[in-house]
Design a protein that fits this description.
With 280 residues, the protein is of the alpha/beta class. It has 2 domains: 16-176, Rossmann fold (3-Layer(aba) Sandwich), CATH 3.40.50.720; 184-279, Orthogonal Bundle (ProC C-terminal domain-like fold). Helix content is 51%, strand content 13%. Strands 3-2-1-4-5-6-7-8 form an 8-stranded mixed β-sheet, with helices on both faces. The longest helix is centred in the C-terminal third of the chain and has 22 residues, at 208-229. Bound molecules: NADP nicotinamide-adenine-dinucleotide phosphate.
Length: 280
């Protein structure tokens, strides 16, 4: 998780609003607050569900309202954190309160920037973000894409904010279907790998709890080594495969089973599905 940077792009009293106070909004707000980049008193969230608002207020110290328009009026940056099917009605509702100074950040999966821009006043700054579920444990992988009116400093600001909940990389909208196929859907592939590895452990005599813990920590540790060492994953794999050893014997089985091709196919299938859904 990133800590507060000295050359921060984030104004000290920046006001952030969340329309929708569900899981993603809570995760993002927690990240902003715990890293100290946004004060809880400068965050306002709206939601029809009072339980969500109570959590925001009681656990995070955030201001709450039932009015989406109030969120827009009082915020420099507004995060659209509602389900994709609610985005259009929300945009129609808040559009009269959106002005050019405000930054609108959408995390709604599959809603193109153009669709959002069309429903807001001309020149509105819109940034689309594709985060993933590990945002809930402050370990998200996010890619963000700027809309037409967005300036570099806006993209830098949102990138810095997203780094409070994991890694974040600026990109362009044409990458987002593939991002969905890799990191958006990727947690499901990793959960399945953890489950299958633990099945292997159980088959060979380990208790289930221990097997799941070992499998999960092994993926976490391997991922940390890739991110922190800067080494290519193939090199790290080679370093674990000693000649005539156990790991290379297992690698042979994985190759025979089409392990790599399955993962490539999975990312391709999810990307094509995201593209198809985006067009419909
Ligand atoms: N969860 C993830 O891992 C993930 C990953 C990538 C992207 N996303 C995107 O993030 C967005 C939010 O996902 P989430 O998992 O946080 O959903 P969520 O937990 O269901 O939160 C959405 C919240 O918005 C509220 N809401 C519904 N209509 C509203 C309205 N008109 N005005 C204000 N709030 C309204 C919902 O209330 P009700 O429940 O009462 O309807 C709910 O509390 C989605 O668009 C999703 O595609 C999520």
């Amino acid at each position: 998780m990133a800590s507060k940077q000295t050359n921060s792009k984030i104004p000290p009293d920046m006001a952030v609003g969340f329309i929708g106070a569900g899981r993603m909004a809570q995760a993002m707000a927690r990240g902003f607050i715990t890293t100290g980049v946004i004060k809880p008193g400068n965050i306002l969230a709206s939601d029809p569900d009072q339980r969500m608002l109570n959590f925001m207020q009681n656990d995070l110290g955030i201001n709450i309202t039932h009015s989406n328009r109030e969120v827009v009026e009082k915020s420099d940056m507004v995060v659209l954190a509602v389900k994709p099917n609610v985005v259009s009605p929300v945009l129609q509702e808040v559009s009269p309160t959106v002005s050019k100074e405000k930054l609108v950040v959408s995390i709604a999966a599959g809603i193109p920037i153009g669709t959002i821009e069309k429903q807001l006043p001309d020149g509105t700054k819109v940034i689309r973000v594709m985060p993933n579920t590990p945002a809930l444990v402050q370990a998200a992988a996010s890619v963000l894409a700027p809309g037409q009116a967005v300036e570099d400093c806006d993209t830098e600001l949102v990138t810095e904010l997203l780094r409070c909940i994991g890694i974040a990389e600026p990109g362009s909208e044409k990458l987002l279907d593939a991002v969905t196929g890799l990191s958006g859907s990727g947690p499901a592939y990793a959960f399945t790998a953890i489950e299958a590895l633990s099945d292997g452990g159980v088959k060979m005599g380990l208790p289930r709890d221990l097997a799941i813990k070992l499998a999960a920590q092994t993926l976490l540790g391997a991922a940390k080594m890739v991110l922190e060492s800067g080494k290519h994953p193939g090199q790290l794999k080679d370093e674990v495969c000693s000649p005539g050893g156990t790991t290379i014997a297992a690698m042979h089985k994985l190759e025979r089973g089409g392990f790599r091709a399955s993962l490539i196919d999975a990312v391709e299938a999810a990307t094509l599905k995201a593209k198809e859904l985006g067009q419909s």
